[in-house]
Amino acid sequence: MSEFTIQAENIKVKAGQKILLHNINLAIPTSQFVALVGPNGAGKSTLLKLLSGLNRPEKGDIKLAGRLLKKMTSAEIAEQLSYLPQRSEIYWDYRVSDILELHADSSSFAAAFLQEFDIENLLDRQFKTLSGGEQARVLLAASLISHPAILLADEPAAALDVAHQLQLLKRIKDRTAEGLTAIVVMHDLNLATRFADRIVVLNNGEIQLDDATQSVIMSPALDLHFDVYFQRLTMDLQTILIPHFHSEKPARENTLLKAV
């Protein structure tokens, strides 16, 4: 059995003559929270769909626990992997309990699971009547109710207020301590810094940085790939990134500051 839960090897993807992803190599072990970051159009969502098996690369292979994804059935993939897309629309008038039942192994839900996601009082509600935060909790719960080994989530905290962002990402982080491998597309670098064990920076269709979180956020290359410069503020053993336009960069600047 492979030591890696999910792998991408020499991946290349094209759309017409445009190369979307090139020379992608990624190996993620069990129980990591990996933040996939990068500017708009970098290829983050494209890569996540490839890892989920929804799309196939023009070149290269995806592996789940050492098995080639292209040789696995949809049912076999679903047993190991859950994919939460960027925009999850529910077109039918489903109740929350219906949505959970579609993803669960049985029609009964453990009380502890419902409490974990704070949805025990939502089971009889129609999904479309829920607030954005409630919908996000339900969709994440549906993604995790079958206890997959891997969660692929595309901006699951987008459009949520700060409290709901923290709650949702903490739930994912807590699950990695129990063995879940999570690859999460994120735009907020400070949230990525707070929750991720590892950050992968994608730009121009290629992996530009891939390392432990602290190493990536301290790298000067991060500024180049986001076309800004970052001041680094260290507070309570955590580094906070403060972005500025290049035109505002002082001629002589120490980018690492300490809060007092």
From TrEMBL:
The keyword Ligase does not apply. Keywords: ATP-binding, Hydrolase, Nucleotide-binding, Translocase, Transport. The keyword Cell inner membrane does not apply. Pfam families: ABC_tran. Transmembrane segments: none annotated. Residues 6-229 form the ABC transporter domain. CDD domains: ABC_Iron-Siderophores_B12_Hemin. Its EC number is 3.6.3.-. It comes from the Bacteria. One of its GO terms (molecular function) is ATP hydrolysis activity. InterPro entries: AAA+_ATPase, ABC_transporter-like_ATP-bd, ABC_transporter-like_CS, P-loop_NTPase. Part of the ABC transporter complex HmuTUV involved in hemin import. Responsible for energy coupling to the transport system. PANTHER family: HEMIN IMPORT ATP-BINDING PROTEIN HMUV. This is Hemin import ATP-binding protein HmuV. It comes from Methylophaga muralis.
